[in-house]
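Continuing the series of single-chain predictions for the mutant panel. This is the parent chain; the variants come on the following pages.
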Amino acid sequence: MSASQSVISSTVDHTSSISVHGAEEKEDLEKEKQKEEPYSIWTTGQLVRFLSICAGTGMISPLTASIYLPALNQIQRDLNTTTEKVNISITVYMIFQAISPTFWGTIADSYGRRPVYLCTMLIYCGACIGLALSPNYAALLIFRMMQAFGSSSVIAIGAGILGDIVDSKRQGPVLGGIIAEKLNWKWIFWILTIIGGLSVIFVSLFVPETLRSLVGNGSGYANPTPFQWLARRRGQLDEEKIAQIKIANGPRRPMNFLAPFIYLTEPDVAITLIFSGFLYCSMYTFMTSTTNQFTIHYNLNELQIGLCFLCQGSGSIIGSFVKGKLLDRDFKRLKEKTVRENPDNPDIEISFYKARLGGAYVSLFFVDALPIAYGWAMHYNAPLPVALVLQFLVGVSTSSLTICTQSLIVDLFPGKGASITASNNLTRCLLGAVASVAIEPGIQGVGIGWMFTIVGLLVTVTNIAVPVLIKFGPKWRARRAERYKKSNGNLEFTFFKSKK
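Parent structure:
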Protein backbone atom coordinates (compact mmCIF):
# COMPACT_ATOMS: atom_id res chain seq x y z
CA MET A 1 0.00 0.00 0.00
CA SER A 2 1.39 3.43 -0.96
CA ALA A 3 1.75 6.37 1.43
CA SER A 4 -1.18 8.22 -0.19
CA GLN A 5 -3.44 5.17 0.18
CA SER A 6 -2.49 4.91 3.84
CA VAL A 7 -3.41 8.53 4.44
CA ILE A 8 -6.81 8.04 2.71
CA SER A 9 -7.55 4.92 4.73
CA SER A 10 -6.75 6.84 7.92
CA THR A 11 -10.10 8.65 7.57
CA VAL A 12 -11.75 5.25 8.09
CA ASP A 13 -9.37 3.73 10.60
CA HIS A 14 -7.64 6.06 13.06
CA THR A 15 -5.35 3.27 14.22
CA SER A 16 -3.84 2.83 10.77
CA SER A 17 -3.20 6.59 10.68
CA ILE A 18 -1.11 6.33 13.82
CA SER A 19 0.75 3.40 12.25
CA VAL A 20 1.49 5.37 9.10
CA HIS A 21 2.74 8.40 11.03
CA GLY A 22 4.92 6.09 13.10
CA ALA A 23 6.37 4.57 9.95
CA GLU A 24 7.03 8.03 8.50
CA GLU A 25 8.80 9.10 11.69
CA LYS A 26 10.89 5.94 11.58
CA GLU A 27 11.78 6.63 7.95
CA ASP A 28 12.77 10.19 8.85
CA LEU A 29 14.96 8.87 11.66
CA GLU A 30 16.65 6.46 9.24
CA LYS A 31 17.34 9.33 6.84
CA GLU A 32 18.79 11.43 9.66
CA LYS A 33 20.97 8.52 10.70
CA GLN A 34 22.27 8.14 7.15
CA LYS A 35 23.05 11.86 7.03
CA GLU A 36 24.99 11.61 10.29
CA GLU A 37 27.09 8.68 9.08
CA PRO A 38 30.40 9.78 7.56
CA TYR A 39 31.06 9.09 3.89
CA SER A 40 34.19 7.23 4.97
CA ILE A 41 35.36 6.03 8.39
CA TRP A 42 39.03 6.36 7.45
CA THR A 43 41.08 9.07 9.15
CA THR A 44 42.93 11.70 7.13
CA GLY A 45 46.21 9.93 7.81
CA GLN A 46 44.82 6.61 6.57
CA LEU A 47 43.38 8.25 3.45
CA VAL A 48 46.75 9.84 2.68
CA ARG A 49 48.46 6.46 3.08
CA PHE A 50 45.96 4.60 0.88
CA LEU A 51 46.00 7.22 -1.86
CA SER A 52 49.81 7.54 -1.77
CA ILE A 53 50.17 3.80 -2.36
CA CYS A 54 47.56 3.94 -5.13
CA ALA A 55 49.29 6.92 -6.74
CA GLY A 56 52.65 5.16 -6.60
CA THR A 57 51.17 1.99 -8.06
CA GLY A 58 49.37 4.04 -10.70
CA MET A 59 52.74 5.26 -11.98
CA ILE A 60 53.65 1.71 -12.99
CA SER A 61 51.58 1.73 -16.19
CA PRO A 62 53.00 4.93 -17.76
CA LEU A 63 56.47 4.11 -16.41
CA THR A 64 56.34 0.68 -18.05
CA ALA A 65 55.27 2.19 -21.37
CA SER A 66 57.94 4.91 -21.44
CA ILE A 67 60.92 3.20 -19.80
CA TYR A 68 61.03 0.78 -22.74
CA LEU A 69 61.42 3.38 -25.50
CA PRO A 70 65.12 4.41 -25.23
CA ALA A 71 66.20 0.75 -25.43
CA LEU A 72 64.41 -0.07 -28.71
CA ASN A 73 67.57 -0.05 -30.82
CA GLN A 74 69.44 -2.23 -28.33
CA ILE A 75 66.55 -4.72 -28.23
CA GLN A 76 66.51 -4.79 -32.03
CA ARG A 77 70.22 -5.66 -32.15
CA ASP A 78 70.17 -8.25 -29.36
CA LEU A 79 67.13 -10.12 -30.69
CA ASN A 80 68.28 -9.79 -34.32
CA THR A 81 65.02 -8.27 -35.52
CA THR A 82 63.81 -5.11 -37.31
CA THR A 83 62.63 -1.68 -36.19
CA GLU A 84 59.12 -2.43 -37.44
CA LYS A 85 58.90 -5.63 -35.38
CA VAL A 86 60.19 -3.92 -32.25
CA ASN A 87 57.55 -1.22 -32.74
CA ILE A 88 54.91 -3.95 -32.93
CA SER A 89 55.84 -4.81 -29.34
CA ILE A 90 54.75 -1.25 -28.47
CA THR A 91 51.54 -1.71 -30.45
CA VAL A 92 50.49 -4.94 -28.73
CA TYR A 93 51.28 -3.37 -25.37
CA MET A 94 48.92 -0.49 -26.13
CA ILE A 95 46.17 -2.77 -27.45
CA PHE A 96 46.19 -4.77 -24.23
CA GLN A 97 46.53 -1.52 -22.28
CA ALA A 98 43.26 -0.44 -23.91
CA ILE A 99 41.36 -3.69 -23.31
CA SER A 100 42.63 -4.64 -19.85
CA PRO A 101 40.87 -1.97 -17.71
CA THR A 102 37.53 -2.92 -19.30
CA PHE A 103 37.99 -6.52 -18.13
CA TRP A 104 39.54 -5.94 -14.71
CA GLY A 105 37.44 -2.88 -13.86
CA THR A 106 34.22 -4.86 -14.30
CA ILE A 107 35.49 -7.62 -12.01
CA ALA A 108 36.66 -5.04 -9.45
CA ASP A 109 33.19 -3.47 -9.37
CA SER A 110 31.71 -6.85 -8.42
CA TYR A 111 34.32 -8.71 -6.34
CA GLY A 112 36.24 -5.77 -4.90
CA ARG A 113 39.25 -3.57 -5.63
CA ARG A 114 41.75 -5.35 -3.42
CA PRO A 115 41.81 -8.87 -4.96
CA VAL A 116 41.96 -7.43 -8.49
CA TYR A 117 44.75 -5.06 -7.48
CA LEU A 118 46.84 -7.94 -6.12
CA CYS A 119 46.04 -10.30 -8.99
CA THR A 120 46.98 -7.80 -11.70
CA MET A 121 50.24 -6.83 -10.00
CA LEU A 122 51.26 -10.49 -9.63
CA ILE A 123 50.60 -10.99 -13.36
CA TYR A 124 52.67 -7.88 -14.03
CA CYS A 125 55.61 -9.12 -11.94
CA GLY A 126 55.54 -12.51 -13.66
CA ALA A 127 55.51 -10.83 -17.08
CA CYS A 128 58.47 -8.61 -16.14
CA ILE A 129 60.49 -11.68 -15.13
CA GLY A 130 59.55 -13.34 -18.42
CA LEU A 131 60.66 -10.24 -20.36
CA ALA A 132 63.97 -10.10 -18.52
CA LEU A 133 64.61 -13.74 -19.51
CA SER A 134 63.22 -13.48 -23.06
CA PRO A 135 65.46 -15.42 -25.46
CA ASN A 136 63.76 -14.26 -28.68
CA TYR A 137 61.30 -11.85 -30.26
CA ALA A 138 58.26 -14.14 -29.87
CA ALA A 139 58.79 -14.39 -26.11
CA LEU A 140 59.22 -10.61 -25.92
CA LEU A 141 55.89 -10.09 -27.69
CA ILE A 142 53.95 -12.56 -25.51
CA PHE A 143 55.28 -11.26 -22.20
CA ARG A 144 54.79 -7.65 -23.33
CA MET A 145 51.09 -8.46 -23.81
CA MET A 146 50.94 -10.00 -20.33
CA GLN A 147 52.75 -7.00 -18.88
CA ALA A 148 50.13 -4.61 -20.27
CA PHE A 149 47.31 -6.92 -19.19
CA GLY A 150 48.59 -6.78 -15.62
CA SER A 151 49.70 -3.16 -15.31
CA SER A 152 47.25 -0.99 -17.20
CA SER A 153 44.24 -1.52 -14.94
CA VAL A 154 45.85 0.04 -11.87
CA ILE A 155 44.88 3.59 -12.91
CA ALA A 156 41.19 2.76 -13.39
CA ILE A 157 41.09 0.77 -10.14
CA GLY A 158 42.89 3.60 -8.37
CA ALA A 159 40.22 6.00 -9.66
CA GLY A 160 37.60 3.62 -8.27
CA ILE A 161 39.27 3.57 -4.85
CA LEU A 162 39.41 7.38 -4.85
CA GLY A 163 35.67 7.54 -5.50
CA ASP A 164 35.00 4.90 -2.82
CA ILE A 165 36.76 6.67 0.03
CA VAL A 166 36.68 10.38 -0.86
CA ASP A 167 33.44 12.27 -1.38
CA SER A 168 33.43 14.32 -4.59
CA LYS A 169 32.71 17.37 -2.55
CA ARG A 170 35.52 17.22 -0.40
CA GLN A 171 60.54 9.75 -14.49
CA GLY A 172 60.48 6.87 -16.87
CA PRO A 173 62.36 7.37 -20.19
CA VAL A 174 65.48 8.81 -18.53
CA LEU A 175 65.68 5.82 -16.18
CA GLY A 176 65.28 3.47 -19.15
CA GLY A 177 68.10 5.19 -21.02
CA ILE A 178 70.45 4.97 -18.03
CA ILE A 179 69.72 1.27 -17.47
CA ALA A 180 70.05 0.36 -21.15
CA GLU A 181 73.30 2.32 -21.58
CA LYS A 182 75.04 1.33 -18.34
CA LEU A 183 73.67 -2.19 -17.81
CA ASN A 184 71.49 -4.00 -20.37
CA TRP A 185 67.94 -3.62 -21.69
CA LYS A 186 66.88 -6.74 -19.79
CA TRP A 187 67.70 -4.95 -16.53
CA ILE A 188 64.82 -2.58 -17.31
CA PHE A 189 62.44 -5.45 -16.61
CA TRP A 190 64.28 -6.62 -13.48
CA ILE A 191 63.91 -3.08 -12.12
CA LEU A 192 60.21 -3.12 -13.01
CA THR A 193 59.85 -6.52 -11.29
CA ILE A 194 61.24 -5.02 -8.08
CA ILE A 195 58.90 -2.02 -8.34
CA GLY A 196 55.93 -4.30 -9.00
CA GLY A 197 56.88 -6.59 -6.12
CA LEU A 198 57.07 -3.68 -3.70
CA SER A 199 53.63 -2.56 -4.90
CA VAL A 200 52.21 -6.02 -4.18
CA ILE A 201 53.64 -5.93 -0.65
CA PHE A 202 52.34 -2.44 0.14
CA VAL A 203 48.88 -3.08 -1.33
CA SER A 204 48.51 -6.46 0.41
CA LEU A 205 49.48 -5.01 3.81
CA PHE A 206 48.07 -1.50 3.84
CA VAL A 207 45.30 -0.98 1.25
CA PRO A 208 41.94 -2.32 2.51
CA GLU A 209 38.88 -3.20 0.46
CA THR A 210 37.01 0.01 -0.44
CA LEU A 211 34.21 -1.11 -2.79
CA ARG A 212 31.13 0.47 -1.21
CA SER A 213 28.82 -2.36 -2.27
CA LEU A 214 30.97 -4.68 -0.10
CA VAL A 215 32.17 -2.57 2.84
CA GLY A 216 29.98 0.55 2.81
CA ASN A 217 31.92 3.48 4.23
CA GLY A 218 34.68 1.14 5.41
CA SER A 219 32.82 -0.35 8.38
CA GLY A 220 32.19 -3.64 6.57
CA TYR A 221 34.47 -6.64 6.23
CA ALA A 222 35.55 -8.13 2.88
CA ASN A 223 38.85 -9.12 1.26
CA PRO A 224 40.67 -8.19 4.51
CA THR A 225 44.26 -7.08 4.98
CA PRO A 226 46.32 -9.17 7.43
CA PHE A 227 45.77 -6.47 10.07
CA GLN A 228 41.97 -6.53 9.57
CA TRP A 229 41.96 -10.33 9.75
CA LEU A 230 43.86 -10.26 13.05
CA ALA A 231 41.59 -7.55 14.45
CA ARG A 232 38.51 -9.66 13.73
CA ARG A 233 40.10 -12.76 15.24
CA ARG A 234 40.72 -10.75 18.41
CA GLY A 235 37.12 -9.48 18.49
CA GLN A 236 38.11 -5.86 17.87
CA LEU A 237 35.63 -5.25 15.03
CA ASP A 238 31.96 -4.31 15.30
CA GLU A 239 30.29 -7.55 14.15
CA GLU A 240 26.80 -6.04 14.36
CA LYS A 241 27.82 -3.22 12.01
CA ILE A 242 29.44 -5.70 9.61
CA ALA A 243 26.25 -7.77 9.52
CA GLN A 244 24.10 -4.68 8.91
CA ILE A 245 26.24 -3.60 5.94
CA LYS A 246 26.19 -7.12 4.49
CA ILE A 247 22.37 -7.22 4.66
CA ALA A 248 21.96 -3.65 3.37
CA ASN A 249 24.22 -4.22 0.38
CA GLY A 250 22.31 -7.30 -0.76
CA PRO A 251 23.62 -9.67 -3.43
CA ARG A 252 26.83 -9.01 -5.34
CA ARG A 253 26.50 -6.61 -8.25
CA PRO A 254 26.37 -8.52 -11.57
CA MET A 255 29.31 -8.02 -13.90
CA ASN A 256 28.80 -6.12 -17.16
CA PHE A 257 31.85 -6.06 -19.42
CA LEU A 258 30.06 -3.71 -21.83
CA ALA A 259 29.84 -0.86 -19.30
CA PRO A 260 32.77 1.22 -20.67
CA PHE A 261 31.41 0.88 -24.21
CA ILE A 262 28.02 2.31 -23.19
CA TYR A 263 29.52 5.75 -22.66
CA LEU A 264 30.81 5.72 -26.23
CA THR A 265 27.22 5.61 -27.51
CA GLU A 266 26.68 9.15 -26.19
CA PRO A 267 27.54 11.64 -28.99
CA ASP A 268 29.30 14.21 -26.78
CA VAL A 269 31.37 11.53 -25.05
CA ALA A 270 32.29 9.80 -28.33
CA ILE A 271 33.37 13.08 -29.97
CA THR A 272 35.36 14.12 -26.89
CA LEU A 273 37.17 10.79 -26.59
CA ILE A 274 37.94 10.52 -30.30
CA PHE A 275 39.38 14.04 -30.26
CA SER A 276 41.41 13.20 -27.14
CA GLY A 277 42.48 9.91 -28.73
CA PHE A 278 43.92 11.64 -31.80
CA LEU A 279 45.87 14.00 -29.53
CA TYR A 280 47.34 10.94 -27.81
CA CYS A 281 47.94 9.37 -31.20
CA SER A 282 49.92 12.44 -32.32
CA MET A 283 51.96 12.47 -29.12
CA TYR A 284 52.81 8.79 -29.50
CA THR A 285 54.15 9.29 -33.04
CA PHE A 286 56.80 11.52 -31.46
CA MET A 287 57.57 9.13 -28.61
CA THR A 288 57.77 6.00 -30.76
CA SER A 289 59.92 7.51 -33.51
CA THR A 290 62.34 9.47 -31.31
CA THR A 291 64.70 6.60 -30.50
CA ASN A 292 65.32 5.51 -34.09
CA GLN A 293 65.25 8.99 -35.67
CA PHE A 294 67.56 10.59 -33.10
CA THR A 295 70.00 7.72 -33.58
CA ILE A 296 69.95 8.24 -37.36
CA HIS A 297 70.05 12.06 -37.40
CA TYR A 298 72.15 12.84 -34.31
CA ASN A 299 74.01 9.56 -33.57
CA LEU A 300 72.91 9.51 -29.91
CA ASN A 301 73.31 6.57 -27.51
CA GLU A 302 70.59 5.14 -25.24
CA LEU A 303 71.44 7.41 -22.28
CA GLN A 304 71.40 10.55 -24.42
CA ILE A 305 68.10 9.53 -26.03
CA GLY A 306 66.61 8.93 -22.59
CA LEU A 307 67.58 12.47 -21.58
CA CYS A 308 65.97 13.82 -24.77
CA PHE A 309 62.63 12.40 -23.62
CA LEU A 310 62.78 14.89 -20.74
CA CYS A 311 61.81 17.71 -23.11
CA GLN A 312 58.42 16.34 -24.10
CA GLY A 313 57.84 14.98 -20.60
CA SER A 314 58.60 18.28 -18.86
CA GLY A 315 56.44 20.08 -21.43
CA SER A 316 53.55 17.77 -20.58
CA ILE A 317 53.93 18.46 -16.85
CA ILE A 318 54.08 22.23 -17.35
CA GLY A 319 51.17 22.22 -19.80
CA SER A 320 48.98 20.19 -17.43
CA PHE A 321 49.79 22.37 -14.43
CA VAL A 322 49.30 25.72 -16.17
CA LYS A 323 46.14 24.65 -18.00
CA GLY A 324 44.69 23.24 -14.79
CA LYS A 325 45.04 26.66 -13.15
CA LEU A 326 43.53 28.38 -16.20
CA LEU A 327 40.59 25.95 -16.25
CA ASP A 328 39.78 26.81 -12.63
CA ARG A 329 39.92 30.51 -13.47
CA ASP A 330 37.77 30.15 -16.60
CA PHE A 331 35.19 28.08 -14.71
CA LYS A 332 34.81 30.73 -11.99
CA ARG A 333 34.59 33.57 -14.52
CA LEU A 334 31.94 31.80 -16.59
CA LYS A 335 29.97 31.00 -13.44
CA GLU A 336 30.03 34.66 -12.34
CA LYS A 337 29.04 35.85 -15.82
CA THR A 338 26.16 33.36 -16.03
CA VAL A 339 24.82 34.43 -12.62
CA ARG A 340 25.05 38.12 -13.58
CA GLU A 341 23.09 37.47 -16.77
CA ASN A 342 20.45 35.47 -14.87
CA PRO A 343 19.90 37.34 -11.56
CA ASP A 344 16.52 35.67 -11.02
CA ASN A 345 18.10 32.20 -11.13
CA PRO A 346 21.38 32.18 -9.12
CA ASP A 347 21.50 28.36 -9.18
CA ILE A 348 21.55 28.16 -12.99
CA GLU A 349 23.97 25.58 -14.33
CA ILE A 350 26.79 26.76 -16.58
CA SER A 351 27.86 25.01 -19.78
CA PHE A 352 30.62 22.54 -18.92
CA TYR A 353 31.54 22.43 -22.60
CA LYS A 354 32.20 26.16 -22.80
CA ALA A 355 33.96 26.21 -19.42
CA ARG A 356 36.37 23.42 -20.35
CA LEU A 357 36.87 23.98 -24.09
CA GLY A 358 36.30 27.72 -24.53
CA GLY A 359 39.99 28.54 -23.99
CA ALA A 360 41.37 25.69 -26.12
CA TYR A 361 41.70 27.47 -29.46
CA VAL A 362 45.30 28.69 -28.98
CA SER A 363 46.45 25.17 -28.13
CA LEU A 364 44.60 23.83 -31.18
CA PHE A 365 46.80 25.93 -33.46
CA PHE A 366 49.96 24.51 -31.90
CA VAL A 367 48.90 20.84 -31.98
CA ASP A 368 48.16 21.30 -35.70
CA ALA A 369 51.30 23.20 -36.65
CA LEU A 370 53.97 21.58 -34.46
CA PRO A 371 53.96 18.08 -36.04
CA ILE A 372 54.38 19.66 -39.48
CA ALA A 373 57.19 21.95 -38.27
CA TYR A 374 58.92 19.05 -36.49
CA GLY A 375 58.72 16.74 -39.50
CA TRP A 376 60.33 19.22 -41.87
CA ALA A 377 62.91 20.30 -39.28
CA MET A 378 64.02 16.67 -39.03
CA HIS A 379 63.87 16.30 -42.84
CA TYR A 380 66.35 19.17 -43.28
CA ASN A 381 68.56 17.95 -40.39
CA ALA A 382 67.91 20.92 -38.10
CA PRO A 383 70.15 21.14 -35.01
CA LEU A 384 69.20 18.93 -32.07
CA PRO A 385 68.07 21.89 -29.87
CA VAL A 386 65.47 22.82 -32.51
CA ALA A 387 63.98 19.31 -32.44
CA LEU A 388 63.98 19.29 -28.63
CA VAL A 389 62.26 22.69 -28.36
CA LEU A 390 59.57 21.51 -30.79
CA GLN A 391 59.07 18.33 -28.72
CA PHE A 392 58.78 20.46 -25.57
CA LEU A 393 56.07 22.60 -27.20
CA VAL A 394 54.27 19.45 -28.36
CA GLY A 395 54.19 18.28 -24.74
CA VAL A 396 52.83 21.62 -23.51
CA SER A 397 50.09 21.98 -26.14
CA THR A 398 48.97 18.34 -26.19
CA SER A 399 48.75 17.98 -22.40
CA SER A 400 46.87 21.28 -22.06
CA LEU A 401 44.17 19.99 -24.41
CA THR A 402 44.14 16.54 -22.85
CA ILE A 403 43.41 17.98 -19.40
CA CYS A 404 40.52 19.95 -20.94
CA THR A 405 38.91 16.81 -22.36
CA GLN A 406 39.58 14.77 -19.22
CA SER A 407 38.01 17.47 -17.03
CA LEU A 408 35.00 17.63 -19.33
CA ILE A 409 34.15 13.93 -19.26
CA VAL A 410 34.55 13.81 -15.47
CA ASP A 411 32.20 16.81 -15.18
CA LEU A 412 29.65 15.07 -17.40
CA PHE A 413 29.60 11.90 -15.27
CA PRO A 414 30.32 12.77 -11.62
CA GLY A 415 30.91 9.69 -9.49
CA LYS A 416 31.68 7.54 -12.54
CA GLY A 417 35.41 8.26 -12.68
CA ALA A 418 36.54 4.63 -12.99
CA SER A 419 34.15 3.71 -15.81
CA ILE A 420 34.69 6.86 -17.85
CA THR A 421 38.47 6.54 -17.35
CA ALA A 422 38.29 3.02 -18.81
CA SER A 423 36.37 4.38 -21.83
CA ASN A 424 38.95 7.11 -22.31
CA ASN A 425 41.78 4.60 -21.97
CA LEU A 426 40.14 2.32 -24.55
CA THR A 427 39.94 4.95 -27.30
CA ARG A 428 43.27 6.65 -26.81
CA CYS A 429 45.32 3.46 -26.43
CA LEU A 430 43.81 1.85 -29.52
CA LEU A 431 44.55 4.98 -31.56
CA GLY A 432 48.01 5.17 -30.00
CA ALA A 433 48.59 1.55 -31.02
CA VAL A 434 47.80 2.43 -34.63
CA ALA A 435 50.23 5.36 -34.46
CA SER A 436 53.07 3.28 -33.02
CA VAL A 437 52.83 0.61 -35.71
CA ALA A 438 52.36 3.07 -38.60
CA ILE A 439 54.93 5.77 -37.90
CA GLU A 440 58.18 4.04 -38.94
CA PRO A 441 56.81 2.43 -42.15
CA GLY A 442 55.27 5.82 -42.96
CA ILE A 443 58.59 7.62 -42.47
CA GLN A 444 60.35 5.08 -44.67
CA GLY A 445 57.60 5.30 -47.29
CA VAL A 446 57.03 9.06 -47.70
CA GLY A 447 59.77 10.59 -45.57
CA ILE A 448 59.67 12.10 -42.09
CA GLY A 449 58.55 15.52 -43.35
CA TRP A 450 55.45 14.29 -45.17
CA MET A 451 54.64 11.68 -42.50
CA PHE A 452 54.41 14.28 -39.74
CA THR A 453 52.52 16.58 -42.10
CA ILE A 454 49.90 13.83 -42.36
CA VAL A 455 49.84 13.58 -38.56
CA GLY A 456 49.28 17.33 -38.25
CA LEU A 457 46.49 17.32 -40.84
CA LEU A 458 44.70 14.43 -39.11
CA VAL A 459 44.72 16.32 -35.82
CA THR A 460 43.48 19.44 -37.66
CA VAL A 461 40.45 17.53 -38.94
CA THR A 462 39.50 16.41 -35.42
CA ASN A 463 39.66 20.01 -34.15
CA ILE A 464 36.08 20.43 -35.38
CA ALA A 465 35.15 18.60 -32.16
CA VAL A 466 35.68 21.73 -30.04
CA PRO A 467 33.12 24.09 -31.68
CA VAL A 468 30.70 21.18 -32.21
CA LEU A 469 30.79 20.28 -28.51
CA ILE A 470 30.41 23.89 -27.38
CA LYS A 471 27.37 24.37 -29.64
CA PHE A 472 25.55 21.03 -29.43
CA GLY A 473 26.92 19.54 -26.19
CA PRO A 474 24.36 21.15 -23.84
CA LYS A 475 21.47 19.81 -25.96
CA TRP A 476 22.90 16.28 -25.95
CA ARG A 477 23.49 16.46 -22.21
CA ALA A 478 19.91 17.64 -21.56
CA ARG A 479 18.50 14.75 -23.60
CA ARG A 480 20.70 12.28 -21.72
CA ALA A 481 19.56 13.71 -18.39
CA GLU A 482 15.94 13.23 -19.43
CA ARG A 483 16.55 9.61 -20.46
CA TYR A 484 18.54 9.03 -17.29
CA LYS A 485 15.65 10.36 -15.19
CA LYS A 486 13.08 8.16 -16.94
CA SER A 487 15.26 5.08 -16.43
CA ASN A 488 15.60 5.70 -12.66
CA GLY A 489 19.29 6.53 -12.93
CA ASN A 490 20.29 3.46 -14.96
CA LEU A 491 22.59 4.48 -17.80
CA GLU A 492 22.58 0.95 -19.23
CA PHE A 493 18.78 1.10 -19.49
CA THR A 494 19.02 4.33 -21.50
CA PHE A 495 21.31 2.55 -23.95
CA PHE A 496 19.34 -0.65 -24.40
CA LYS A 497 15.80 0.76 -24.19
CA SER A 498 15.65 4.47 -24.94
CA LYS A 499 17.73 4.44 -28.09
CA LYS A 500 15.36 2.37 -30.16
